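TL;DR need structure tokens for one chain.
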Amino acid sequence: MSRRDDLAARLGAVRERIAAACAAAGRDPAGVDLLAVTKTVPAADVLTLMDLGLTAFGENRVQEAGAKVAEVAAGTPAGRPAARWHLVGGLQRNKARAAVEWADRVESVDSVRLADALDAAVRRAVDAGRRARPLSVLLQFSVDGDPKRGGVPPDGLLPLAEHVASCAGLRLDGLMAVAPLGADPDTAFASVAAAAERVRTAFPQATTLSAGMSGDLETAIRHGSNVVRVGTALVGERRLTSP
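>> reply
TL;DR here they are.
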């Protein structure tokens, strides 16, 4: 089987899972977006997935992503919509400037200091003509409050949302969460859904809930996720070839 056929089959299977989960939850599949997590896979796979109809891609590492974004842009045929890039992994403040050069959205904002670093980087990029618009951000919610896994705990969520909403270079669009390993998915995503509702009540524009991955997307959709981040089920276990 060619790589294209493999990716097409995997994509079809993931779409079927999303459709089945939406049917079980009484939801319209059109209301759930698929974010292809393409960390450690080559730009050629991203271009193939674009040929197959995907437009949104998630990356974890700033340095790897920057080179890949440029390669994908160079390989995208004229007239085709450009790829949209999300940073879904943890971000160190000293890499904020590099991230805003290519990211359309950062899904892992979990502190005031990171928000401030991104805000300053965006405003510099806009002033220099390298960026045309504010940066979409999602707050990373910590289900269990474990600082080692990143994310903001429940009592810090609304204060952080208020701060992000006050940053001219940022646009607060919602919440992202990861169910902790070993946790009951229903319990975890019920907590995430409640947190997302609190943020939406205070900030009605923050309608995005990015939750659910290859192993638990059905449960996340049942609890209201409207973005699922799928890596392994879509692209398999692949690694970039070393230069």
